[in-house]
């Protein structure tokens, strides 16, 4: 009997272990979760929706119906009455679909929900339709299997966010302009991770009445913005205007009509002393507050370096700190009339340590820090804590200086900012996505956006060592292994590329993108390539593996995921080419110099360099041309045409480098006189753009 008991217990715990291993991955992780034994088949579920149900309830329930149809292959059964349905839900308070200014007050339950699945059915209890909607997002991840076997595990969940405000800031000022369809896809994506704020960072990218020539056909219409706001509202995401009302306005003041409003000439910053600035901003503020219904507005006020420079160089006699406070006070007073809660960055306290004392009382400081450095974070946070001000904290996806974001750097930045924020009771957490380099696709940042949003809900970051693979399982269940491998391989290729490039970043910290287009034949880069030959080969190896993973994933992925996966594939090819161009330049120089200077014999070197269908120079031309074509297609699947030609010009210049060299080597072969001395490849052909 004792031995039978041991066998039974062993089998039971083995079964329990297998069951635990097969439990679904839930991002964000609920506050409390308890699994039972058993499951509920989706095909046995039924739902009743009252004819009088409000639009927000119907929207959440329609998403539930769609999810069940996608996973089970059949439409959800609709019951004739609430007491005959086995999906039951309670929503206590109508309305309140979006975050409120008092969201962070203790005891707020607007987003809270409970979820229970057992043999009797599914039960959801929520304070508002927001909680119901979030419960649906959790159900989406709980479902296991597909078709007739699709089922929900028995489970009891209690859940609510650890942070009241959880947002993503999308840059619509520096890079390309995402299509409206792409923005809505982003909003759908962010809603899956229970994000509740979408910061629309803009300088002059929204059409304003009376400013028709400002970025003409390179901006969003007000009707388009209204459609984005309405779309996000259905998904319980508040679209918040993020407009710089002081610096970063080169696109405005580069125009002669507005140049006199600048502190310098054709620079970046408005002049707070100019009455015309107040007239313009009063007009803008009225238009923005009419367009955006959010109770919040972020006004930037970062990096007003030009005012400081003009003062320090003696060009003008200025008091940059006083001008900053003057401008912030004016903007704050003006926005107060419209009932807006104003947010502003605080990086100027790096130059003026006492400036926080002078901030208008109603302005919420936002600490931005984009490096994984606790000391740097507290450098900006400590002055805010000293003044006992409520605050937001804002890390970033480190993607603006790379073709594909720097994964480890991004994870660590988010982790450290979150820990500091949680320790000091931050009101909210904003994950930034910047597009300064223009070239990278924003889609490469999506996984890291999810990481930030998940972290904000949980109040702690996921395990970064397994996050990419778990994320792949949630997002791409049909190609989870291939996508997990791809994320790992492409991140590793970026890590190796970092070891080779990054000295010249054009103020984009640690970026490899600027140098990736440098002349690979210059003496500096030939020496750099020799010193980093092993790392450059590793870049190629891992990026090629990533390409193979993504090609395999395309064979398994759903049609809706294919366009997205293809964007990653193009990014992997671009990373590969960044390494290849340096390796090829060094190989060409070495091959020529060894044959012509050491062996003093042509030895098929011209064939190796110029043969029309397969040679080093032709390889480079072929790949540059192919990349230009697929890059164009991929860009237009994500962005409007604006700024595309600025990037395509890089491919054109690159192609001309290899083409000119090809012609020069061919001409050398035709025109060569035997008595003429042969020089090194660099001296003879002077490779340059």
From TrEMBL:
Positions of the Beta-hexosaminidase bacterial type N-terminal domain: 24-160
Keyword match Hydrolase: yes
Start and end residues of each Glycoside hydrolase family 20 catalytic domain: 164-371
Reaction equations catalysed: Hydrolysis of terminal non-reducing N-acetyl-D-hexosamine residues in N-acetyl-beta-D-hexosaminides
GO biological process: carbohydrate metabolic process; glycosaminoglycan metabolic process
EC number: 3.2.1.52
Membership in a protein family: Belongs to the glycosyl hydrolase 20 family.
Residues the record marks as active site: 303
Statement: the UniProt record of this protein carries the keyword rRNA processing: no
UniProt-listed Gene3D superfamilies: Chitobiase/beta-hexosaminidase domain 2-like (3.30.379.10), Glycosidases (3.20.20.80)
UniProt keyword terms in alphabetical order: Glycosidase, Hydrolase
Gene Ontology molecular function terms on file: beta-N-acetylhexosaminidase activity
Name of the protein: beta-N-acetylhexosaminidase
Organism of this sequence: Runella aurantiaca
InterPro entries associated with the record: Beta_hexosaminidase_sua/sub, GH, Glyco_hydro_20_cat, Hex-like_dom2, HEX_bac_N
